[in-house]
Amino acid sequence: MTLPALSACIIAGILPLLWLPALPDIRLVWWVLALGCLFAYSQKPVVRYCGFTLLFFVWGILAAQQTLWPTQHLSGGNRHVEVILTETDNMTRHQGKILRLDGVPLYPAPGITFYGEYLPRQTCSGQRWAMTIRARPVHGQLNEGGFDSQRYALASHQPLSGRIIHARILDARCSWRAGYLQSLTERLVPYAWQPVILALGMGERSALNSDVKNAMRQTGTAHLMAISGLHIALASMLVWLIVRAVQFFLPVRWIDWRLPLLLSVGGAIGYAWLTGLQPPALRTAVALSVWAALRLSGRLWSPWQVWLCCVAAILFTDPLAVLSDSLWLSAFAVASLLFWYQWLPIPGTDLRGWVRGCINLVYLQAGMTLLLLPIQLSIFHGISLTSLVANLAAIPLVTFVAVPFILLGMVLHLTGPSIMETVCWYVADNTLEILFSFLRWLPPGWLNVDMRWQWLAWVPWCTLMAWRLNLWRTMPAVCLACLVILAFPFWRSERSGEWSVHMLDVGHGLALVIERDGKAILYDTGSAWPGGDSGQQLIIPWLRWHALEPEGVILSHEHLDHRGGLNSLLNNWPGMWVRSPLGWAGHHPCFRGEKWQWQGLNFSVHWPLQGSTAQGNNRSCVVRVDDGQNSILLTGDIEAQGEMAMLSHYWEHLASTLVQVPHHGSNTSSTLPFIQRIGGNAALASASRYNAWRLPSAKVTTRYRQQGYRWFDTAHQGQTTIAFSAQGWEIHSLRDQLLPRWYHQWFGVPSDNR
């Protein structure tokens, strides 16, 4: 079997980890392993390839199960562990690896993140601590169009989070990298662009402020501002050039072409270690090692064979890297580059020197902008309209000026302060000043793109292939059919009478979207926290991904977990109306007796009473939405007192098909008479898995089920959608039905809510 064929088997075997709804049982894994071994010894090439693919499939499954082992055996109680810190903010957030459990070594050491706890002394990476911890499995909010934090955590081998109950230092020594980073940080204090220099040189992005991040996002230059394959490859190239320069002065008998190659790979690995072995840096080091091994083999390998072997080596080394968006972005970028230059090579010209270089740079950037559209929309849900111009300036400045001087400055810093080191930092700082002045001068260029364009983004690839293979002449019908299929989301029309309610997964809070005919109304807007809110982080990306334009917001009451995202929504859509019982300026009233229609749906308010002195939860605006056949009752955080008050006077209007469970499933709400009076078929609760109040209450869920309700909550189901039509209604949950993946499951003890 050839090496490229083996690489293809590795990729084909591990790739299913992206789509498996659940990991196979270990007994099935053993059967697949036996079948793979049997097929691998076959004399028929196709059967043999299938056998190796099955073997690598088992390899990926075992790696995934190994990563999930800590979620099953370390959660649900206090554990005595030995932890080495790998990252810390020197305050309340620490990342580490669990080296021992009850004195027994763990290999590989599982990663864990601690939140909200100060350690008893100054911390730094490299320290070893004896701790009593309470670990809990990773569990992320899951919404369409949002960041998949659970997948990211598993791809980063961080399956646990937790809190520290007791900690005792075992070894207070910091790692060499931590000491070097501290020294470098202090040395760079006088320079305005210190955070960006540390991000480019050491991969430390935590200090980047929001203005810098926004400028990079708007201009599509964020890929240059962190340790990426480009920086590792550049460091490797600089080592190669230095070794070659030294060889110039050596006798011929001492010169070997292999030495610069091997030392450059060693330099790449060393630099990857210095930057904290971040996944992109580590993958680049693996890819460079594979490329060097292929060069040393003495054979001529095509670019596509090298690409295939590098991707396969990365996945074999770390099968869970298949879940990493950054891996596929890098691999897709290299594939696009190869495809662009092989299928559409730049026309030959007589121009030479810097003019030719500028033409090549523009040509390269144009190709990458077009061919990266599919994966850019898939991951970032948008594109930068100014990225072409921005990168034409940013790539040369960063690659050929800023990064080389930063790397040289980092080397010189090892020998102590010097004039040369100061010159390096001065040049790097002023280069970044010029770059960001230019980026800020450019108009805001970020364009959010909705899901309808997801498949149409493949048109540049299809067009290029159709043109080079002359398919547009020989098979015009096929080309037209492909275009129509890719554009299907644009001409597909919704069935008449359909409308939907989406309960978004916003953790401990509430946000529902009522959708019909491309328009939307929100009921509550989630929570807010220092530096962000649910509106900006979750609701707005969801609305834009679905191409929905919100026309109004119904605010149930004043608590922050229900109104936290309101300002962000109003900043993006200032024309929205707001209804609430709060009496705030600009708010329309939301009191008993209010009725209105929107997109053919009837809205009626059943609580609170006009002039009521109730405050907080019992002032929640209770709204019933119906289409004449089906209905949903939205209750906010109303508690037992408010429920009984509604029942005593207005009970005949509360019957509904579905109900939003009051107060996140708290036992202070959802009284039995209230549940019985609604007489619904399904109950939907918005709750976070790890909330301090252990909501939803087990008594409440039992109460609803005993009355014949189907129970759904965002902690278990993630985003939950109810689709109404003339034929009835149906519920779709993202975690269980729409996007069932093994890495989206509820890990750990099923009843564990801590």
Automatic annotation (TrEMBL):
Subcellular location(s) of the protein: Cell membrane
UniProt xrefs under SMART domains: Lactamase_B
Presence of the UniProt keyword Transmembrane helix in the record: yes
GO CC list: plasma membrane
UniProt keyword terms in alphabetical order: Cell membrane, Membrane, Transmembrane, Transmembrane helix
Protein's UniProt keywords contain Iron: no
Record membrane topology: Multi-pass membrane protein
Pfam families in the cross-refs: Competence, Lactamase_B
GO biological process: establishment of competence for transformation
Regions crossing the membrane: 49-69, 222-243, 255-274, 304-321, 327-346, 358-383, 389-411, 471-491
Alphabetized CDD domains for the sequence: ComA-like_MBL-fold
Segments forming domain Metallo-beta-lactamase: 508-689
Matching InterPro entries: ComA-like_MBL (IPR035681), ComEC_N (IPR004477), Competence_ComEC/Rec2 (IPR004797), Competence_DNA_uptake (IPR052159), Metallo-B-lactamas (IPR001279), RibonucZ/Hydroxyglut_hydro (IPR036866)
Protein name: Competence protein ComEC
